[in-house]
Every structure is written in structure tokens, then in C-alpha cells.
Specification:
The protein is mainly α. The chain is built from four helices and no strands.
Length: 79
């Protein structure tokens, strides 16, 4: 029973969308393009991997051998 209701609701939705697309062709096309883009989005997902765990390692990576940064680090650790 639940499966039938689900299929009827889905069919009803598609019929409403079809009638909307017939009455408003440009908006119907935009809606179709949007749904296609939403379906393609997971394929373009990128997982970012952190290579640095702390701010100090990031600063050390971006500015290698900087004496001012080392002095600043030492001064902030003393306080």
C-alpha cells in the first residue's frame, strides 16, 4: 500500500512538472538544467586533505627560515 502511494505521489509530481513546463517553457528548461546540475554535483566533489596540523607548521611552510617569525614565536611562548 505504501509503495503504491509513493509511486502515485511521484507520478503526480512529474505530471505537475510536465504541465508547468508546457505552460512556461523557458522556466521548465531552467528547472530541468538545474536538476541535471544537482545530479552532477557529487561527481565534482573534492576531498581536501590537511597537510599541516598547527598554525606554526603552516607559517613554517609558507615562510621557511624566517628569523622574525622564530623570534615572535619565542616571545609569545614566554608570555
Amino acid at each position: 500500500m505504501c509503495q503504491k502511494l509513493y509511486l502515485l505521489n511521484k507520478l503526480s509530481f512529474y505530471i505537475v512538472m510536465l504541465t508547468f513546463s508546457i505552460l512556461h517553457p523557458q522556466r521548465g528548461l531552467q528547472l530541468f538544467q538545474t536538476t541535471q546540475q544537482v545530479k552532477e554535483d557529487p561527481a565534482h566533489k573534492y576531498d581536501y586533505v590537511s597537510t599541516h596540523d598547527t598554525l606554526e607548521s603552516v607559517v613554517g611552510y609558507l615562510f621557511p627560515g624566517s628569523e622574525k617569525l622564530d623570534n615572535l614565536k619565542n616571545e609569545t611562548q614566554k608570555q
